[in-house]
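Batch 3, record 17
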Amino acid sequence: MNNIAANLAKIHDRIDKACLKTGRNPEEVRLIAVSKVKPAELIEEAFNSGQILFGESYVQEFRNKEPLVKASVQWHFIGGLQSNKVKYLRGKVAVIHSVDRISLAEEIDRQWGKIDSSVEILLQVNVADEASKSGCAPENLENLVRSIAPLSNLRIKGLMCLPPHSDDPEQVRPFFRQLCELSAQINKLHLPGVSMTELSMGMSGDFEVAVEEGATLVRVGTAIFGARIKKV
Ligand SMILES: *Cc1c(COP(=O)(O)O)cnc(C)c1O
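Prediction for the assembled complex:
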């Protein structure tokens, strides 16, 4: 087995164990291979090892790389997004994880409207209230959901967070739990067209804890592809 195949197998094994520990069905958890900064060949290699979902963070890099990947992967955009760059993702990504403001949602709606289609989005929540991070403040989430929900060319599928890094994943657990609680609160409102089913949380250092707290999409880069040389 090559490295990537072996790494993927190990991660699936760890996801399965975290599910077993908490009585979850492993089929509820999907693995996104975060391939930012990694070349198309490695993406193809992971695809050939059974990986289908790939996450990218930088629009310019995605524009360059996407045409080079011939395999029928499913792209997820997980990075910070400026409205004027949404057009480069139009029709190419299945899910945008980083929607945190109405202006961005409106532009996504407008772009997917042009191709008579719709895209799934997740709302990014700044759970730790960090000045340096994007994401909607938890207290503004309900208003954001209410303003985005009527847009017809996108569907709100759930929430995403990028909590502060810690070498001890237990330090991050409360943030994962908070995201899960926010999702339950929104679901209780029974807003038309809003059903939060996805929780995008957990990275290489903490995905097991995220799974224990209800993650349905884990975003793992380093543990699959190795360290990134360029800055993240
Ligand atoms: C880079 C990145 C990841 C993956 O991080 P690793 O620690 O390499 O697993 C996950 N989510 C987002 C939003 C990222 O930018």
